Structures are given as structure tokens and as C-alpha cells.
Amino acid sequence: MVQIQNPRMETYKMDAVNSITLRVKGMTCGACVASVENMVSKVDGVAEVSVNLPLEKATIIAQSAIQLEDLKTTVIAAIERGGFAASDVMPALQVRADAIEDARLRGKKVIVAFTLTIPIFILTMFVADIGKFAGMDKRLLFAMLSILPVYFWSGWEFHSGAWKTLRQGSANMDVLVHLGTTVAVIWSSAVTIAPALDFAPNLLQNADHVFFDGAAFIISFVLLGNYIEAQAKLRATDAIHSLMRLQPKQARVISDEKLGHTQMAEVDEISKGTLIKILAGETIPLDGELIECQASIDESMMSGEPYPIRKKSGDIANAGTIVLDGTIILRVTALSTDTMLANVIQLVEDAQMGKAPIQRLVDRVAAIFVPIVTVLAIIASLYWWQFGDSTAAQFSMTSAELAVMVLVSTLVIACPCALGLATPTALVVGTGIGARYGLLIKGIEALEKSHKTDTLVVDKTGTITTGRPRVSHIELLDSEVKEILSIAAALEFESTHPLSHAIQTSWSNVTSNKPTICDIRTIAGSGLVGDMEGELVAIGNVSLMQEVGIEIGDELSDKLASAAAKGVTIVLVSAGTRLLGWIEARDRIRSTSAMAVKRAKQMGMEVIMLTGDRAEAAQNIADAVAIDQVIAGVKPDEKADHIKRLQSQGKTVAMIGDGINDAAALTIADVGLAMGAGSQIALESADIVLVRDDLVDAVSALQLGQATMSRIRINLVWAFGYNIIGIPLAMGLLLPWTGWLLPPAFAAAAMSMSSVSVVSNSLLLKWWKPLQN
Predict the structure, then answer these.
(1) What pTM did the predictor assign?
(2) Average pLDDT, the chain
């Protein structure tokens, strides 16, 4: 199975050996993310840190010589000094359950806040006069008392969060909400109490505007926005959690193979080689090999494949898939932490922790956003206090009342939350949806490049074709069928090349004799050579035959060219100086390849076939699927050079392959896509892994990348645009010309909905569907 690696990480790798993942609670916006990253990066021994806001996770990559347990203790202490809660990551489903409970509590706070806010609003806006008490207006006095539970209970998380971050010399959204509501409550309380005092500051002379309703609405709307946002973030992680729920907690272990006795056991305690029994309709708990049985398996939840797959004895069935008929016995081949399902989940989680360069810039902006907004709010407030008499009079206010309104509105309309959520929410949804359909995206770099891709380079064997060729003809020159197949099978015995299986199958149908061949060596891009009782034997292409001393005349070259023109793959076999003949194998074109090429062209991509096969055979396949450009006869070490050449022409290149000889090219390409059944090296080198062997999925993966990046761009434009427009309006910059003055309640509602809109826009990705076969 795919190991979680990102070949483009230059210095440190995010693996279990030198990394720590912690749960961080209490983050509300991009400023919090920047604050946590800044605090952790200052800890000795930390090489790199990445914090994800919607997932509430921090991944810390340690320097090699550091003891992880000691470092974890130090990092947790640093995070908690900053006013956040840090702990070991709990099981994902438990984290989700806690998040649901947190959202439920937040919902209760919203209900309480609005229940008390509405009466305050009615008292201050629609009730004219209900009498005096010690000179104080009773309606204002009731409003002041009513706001206390809203301010202290419903809004406590903002006040406590603000003080914690301020003590660390940083600031976040909590600070803006705290300052805005506190100023509004203090001013309004002073206006309410002033008539009962023997003296009143000049500032309160003739002041009768209070902002109790504004302060209450600020807390209520922000809580409502946070509640909606929390629900939306839960939906954003639906895909990855649906994968987590696929694996059963227990398995039916065969305790007595002869008698067939079984007993239930926890999957985490089951070791490799254990026999387990799965009944029809049950979910397979662990990866395993079928033993003397067959069944139809539903793999749709893992790969998106809509049709059941028929499995027989010797085939591998994966955890999370469902047995549709019969009872099967599996010999476990992977521990619960190493199953394909577990690796897919880990890959997606690692991808979701990634950060685009634009997101790192956004986090830096968010870190200074709150201080800048606070300064702007104070400057605007002071200006209107000193020079706003005539303007304030138009609204039946004093300049001091106008100054307070501008200060509160400017503080609360600013929204660093939308900035912090713009990229990670879309990434979480996009990678989760990709996993649901068998498109495993390793990192955001792949998404960033995929929407720019203009050139799609595809391998032939195993990509456009099935990669399971069959021997269609054997041409004998100086041999018998048994001899040529026996030598070929012996040379190819340990090879992973698709042609090897075809030769082995053909040999087993003819004879069981196989010569002993020693010192078998792979000649890259040419074939295999070995020693058979002192005689050099070889299997491969024409260039290899020439290297071992076999002369290829014009007549023979014409015959080979004629055969290759029919679309077959040819390998020649020699012993000593004798050319024994050649083997022709025909590979079947995947039924979806032509459609995939057509869709890629419709997306504006140039499609190029890059293969080591002969030009005649490659062109035959290319014509069948409408690929216009073919680069054939390419050795494995030359494929990467061809990718570099295309990139040097200013092209953004996506490469699709499945073999060992594609690994270097996949790494060099801007976006590397590997077929799921390909070689381990190819899978590790790729940016995107396709669970199914289907070229259509490769095009779908590129489309998903484009759709995700489109959502991210829309989010960022909205987040920046909202603040660029909203803050000047709240400061009153257009007030002299338009008469527009934003009340604090309206500013709070706008701020809350801005972050909700970003998350909701990301959730639209859940409607994305891959190309249909």
C-alpha cells in the first residue's frame, strides 16, 4: 500500500518518526493560527509547524536529535501559555463527537443570547417611556440588567479568549468582539447611570443614545455565526469520517481451523496470518487474501466503483469493503494500522494539514490584522469625536455618541475568521470528496498545479492499456516453442513488468520445465540478460540484441516493423549468438481511455503519449484513442528529461504512469498521478494516487483540483473584499457623502455571515461528481 510521503519536502518529512500531531482547542481565526505557529516555532527542537484551523490540529516536525516526548511536553506548555488548550490527538470519531457536543452547547448559548437580546432591542428602540427610578430611565435600567447574562455568560468565551491572547502579546477575533461589546456596554451603562449622579462628565452631557442592543446583538450574531460555522465544518469533514466508520471494531477469528470454531476479537489485536471469517452482508475488517473461496465484493465506498468486483481464492480483499454473497475466509495480510483503508485515511489527513503559499501569506496578514483594525477604529472614533458635530447632528446624536458607534462598528465588522477559513475549509472538503471517489490527493501543491495544467503526458502500458498483455504469437527462428518460452520465463521470473506475467502464463500452458539461469540483470529500457550454464541468454528489444552480439538484418527489421505496426509489443529472445525468435504480446486498450483523452482535450490540455515501446506499436494505440503526439522508444532514465523539456517550454505538465520506469518522471512533473495498482515506487513518487486503474479518474482528479482551487480563489476574494469594503464603511469614510452609518448590530451580523459564507462556499464542493465512465 501507499506509504505517506511527499517527495517535494526538501528538508524534513512529516512522518511518524520525527513528527508530533496535537489537538489545539480555542482557535477562532487566522490570527490564532499565526499565534500558535509563532509560539511553537520558537520552541527549541522544532523544525517546522503547520496548524489547521478547521481540523483543530497542529503538526510539529522535530529536528532529528530531539526526544519527541520531551518536545511534546514543551510544545503543549507553550501553546497553553498562549491561552489555547493542547492535548494528544484523540481518535477521530471521538473528536467528532466532542465537536458535535461543543456545537450543541454553542446552540444553547445562541438561544439564551437572542432570548434576552430581543427584549433589550424592544426596550431601547420601541418603548418610549415607562418612568424614572432615582432619575434613571427605567427602560434603560432594565436593558442594562438584561445585558449582564448576555455579556458575561453567552459572551464569556470572547472575553476570556481576548485576555489570554493579549497576555501573550497577540490579538485575535476575540479581542475585537471583547473591545466592541465592552465599549458599548460601559458607554451605555454610563449614560444610564449618569442622571442618578450629582455630577456627570462633559462627555455624557446631552447623551441619550445607548448601545445595549448593539452589544447584545454583537454577541448573539457572532455566536450564531460560530454555531453555523461549526456545523458547516462538521459537514466539511463528512467524507473522511465516513471512511473512518467503514472499518469494523471487531472481527470473527477462526480459533480452530479444523472444527471451524470462531470467536470475536478486537481488530487492533489481530496479527498477520490470522484467519478471519466474514459473512454475506458484513464489512471486511482487515486486508486479507481469500482462502479457497470466492465472492462478490462491493468496493464502491473505497474506490467509487459502482459495480461489484468478483474475487476468487488468492485475491486480496480490503478493509472497509462489503461481502455481497457467500461466506469468505481471509488470511490477514496487514495490521489494522496498515490496511489500505488506514493508509487512505492517513494520506487524506496529511493532505488536509498542508498549506498553500497563499494561505501562509493570509496567516501572516491575519497576525497583524487585529492590531491594525483596532488602531483604525480608534483613529476614526477620535476624528468623529473632535470634528463630527455637524454630521452627528444629522442623526440626532452628539459627536461622542457618533464616535462610540463608529468605534464599536469598526471593531466588530472586521473579520479575520473569513481569511483564516478561506483555504483550509475548501482543502478539507476537496480532499475528502476525492477520497470518497478513489482520488487520493497527497497535498495542496497538487491542487494548486492541477488548475494550471495545460499538458497531460500519459504512459502507454498499464495506463492507456490494461497492462495485462497476452501472448498472441511466437515467431520461431532457431528454436522450439518450449525452449524459447522456458528461457523467457526463467529470465522474467522475478520481473514486475506487465509482459512478464503474460510470458509466465503462456509458458505454464506449454511446459513445466524451466532452465536455471544465474546472474539475471536488468538493462534499463532494454530487457534482461542472464547466464545459463555459461551461455549468455537475453530477452528484450532490438538494441539489447545488438548489444549482446546479435545481428539484425534489413529483412528481419522489416518483419519486426510490420508486426509492431499491428499494435503488438515485441520482445526478442537469444541464447549465445543465436536469435531464437520473438514473442508478440497484445495489450487491450482500456474502454474508458478514449473518453478520458477527449475530456482532457475539452479542458484545453494537450495530450502526449510517452512510452518506451516501439514507435509503430505506440502510434497504433495512440490513433485508437485520438492522441495526436507520440514520443516512443524512450528509456526510463530519459522520461524525466522529456518532462523537463516540456516544462522548459513554459508548460505545466501532469504525468500519469504506473511503473517503476515512471517514478522519476512522476516526481519531476508538476502533477504526478499514479494508478493504484502500479508499482510502490511510482505510488510514492506521485502527488495523486488513483485507487482504480482508470484513466478517466486521472482527468477527474485534475478537474477536482481545478474545482477546489476555484473555491479557494472565490473564498479569498470574498474574505479580502468584504474587509476592504466593510471596514471603511464602518469607519464612516463615506458618511459625509452617502449618509451611510452602520449600526453595531448590523456590523456584527455582517461579520458573522462573512465567515459562514466562506465555509458554505467550500461546502458546495460536496456536489462535485467525477466523470462518468
Answers:
(1) 0.71
(2) 82
